[in-house]
Amino acid sequence: MTTRKRLALAAAIATVGVPAGAAPASAEEKLLTLYSPRIDSLPYVHDTHNVTLRANDQEAPGKPGYVLGFKEMSLVDSKRPNAKPLPVSKMMVHHLLYFAPGRVDQLPGSCWYGAGFISGRGEEHPRGTVLRNSSRAFRDRYGINNRLADGSAPDWRLTAMVMNHYKRPKSFYIRARVWYTTDETRTSVSPVVIGDCSQLVNGMAYDVPGGGKRGSNHVNSSDWVAPFNGRLLMASSHQHGGGKYQTLESRTCGRRLFKAPVYHGMPDHPYNTIRPILHEPGPIGTGAYATLTGIPISQGEVLRRTAVHDNHNLHIAAMGFWATWFVKDDSIRRCGRLPNDITEINRPRRFDRTPNYDLKVPQLARPRGAFTAFDGNPLEVGDDFFRPGKVTARVGETVTWRFGGLRPHSVSVANGPRGFSSVYWGRTSGTYSYTPRVKGTYRLVCLVHPTTMAQTLEVK
Ligand SMILES: [Cu+2]
């Protein structure tokens, strides 16, 4: 089949869709095992690794086709087929994100539009399984089109933010088990990230300042206007940072689609027992939903997402967005009825119903030297230090930090009267400013190097 015909076919399938109850497409799915190149990490360093995965059937699929789902995304220290995933108590996965840049059939409207996003694993997937909705029925019908406009298979990009809790340097591979087919009959689905896209430069994160009454909430909300007619097949809430729940509602149709809980680990879960505490423990699960039929969403329909967080304590680099799967479908009716096959797919068997929102994240390194008054000149952030270690400033005075290292660093409140932070994966140049409005002792850390870099800011 020529590329043009194939694209035309894919477009036709995407437009027409497959009605619910239709016979499944012929299968021919394979489970590919793919490995990243070797990645090296240092103890307690919480850094981001960006790697290219070549389309050679070892790192990424070598032939164009459809990604039907990820059975597993995990860290291993050898390529033995039966190598056990490294435990989260040793190598904690903050996130793994897979992209196929340049792939066809990307639907507009995503905060990550154009990046070719395929799938990801967050802290809410401690077991490394990301798509438990990936039933055979789903995989027989839907897939993410993994091909470039010229008909070839794209190289992939993998972004991995991982925390090494071994006391020594550790090398690992990221292993993905991917359901894949070169069969042409799948309906093309597209991941669409619905969030506050204005926070994209912060990696979709925002700070929950805290300081509210016990039980008070911080709410982050945004509206999304559907740029196409389609069906919503899957919606996975992503929250951490003191998250309580996130909703997705249709303003146009006057109905709530989902209220996704945040499931926190029991006190004995590795996320809570792991030491040292490098960052606020993330949830072990978040509400995620799948429907084979799909929820009809019409062009121009307004969806509002609302993420609710605890605001008694501070929660820096908090998030609230939905990772969804859409299929284009011009046959849907505006505000048509909700399907009766919606299932929740990421609910842990055990979780803590009274999470510890008041956990105080420790400042692990000890700032040294005497207090110096901030004089308007930017405070220095380098490899691997804050200078000076102890600073005083006044309420209402804008404090500025300048990044000058070869390695990325961040300015982040571990604990204190209010939360603030620069971008969590760190930066190597430019400045970051914050104007404190509340007196007190702010214990700052670099999130990338939390055991070695700390600064104390005393606001008077
Ligand atoms: Cu650092």
Layout: helices, strands, pairs:
Elements: H1 3-16, E1 30-35, E2 39-41, E3 46-53, E4 65-76, E5 91-99, E6 117-122, H2 136-141, E7 142-146, E8 156-164, E9 170-181, E10 187-194, E11 206-208, E12 217-225, E13 230-239, E14 243-250, E15 255-263, H3 270-273, E16 285-286, E17 288-297, E18 302-310, E19 315-318, E20 320-328, E21 343-344, E22 372-373, E23 379-382, E24 385-387, E25 390-393, E26 399-403, E27 412-415, E28 431-434, E29 440-445, E30 454-459
The chain binds copper (II) ion.
Copper (II) ion (CU) binds at residues 384, 409, 426, 446, 448-449, 453.
Question: How would you characterize the overall build of this protein?
Answer:
This protein has 460 residues and is mainly β. It has 3 domains: 187 residues, Jelly Rolls; 165 residues, Jelly Rolls; 88 residues, Cupredoxins -  blue copper proteins (Immunoglobulin-like). The chain has 3 helices and 30 strands. A hairpin with a 2-residue loop joins strand 23 and strand 24. The longest helix has 14 residues. Copper (II) ion binds next to loops.
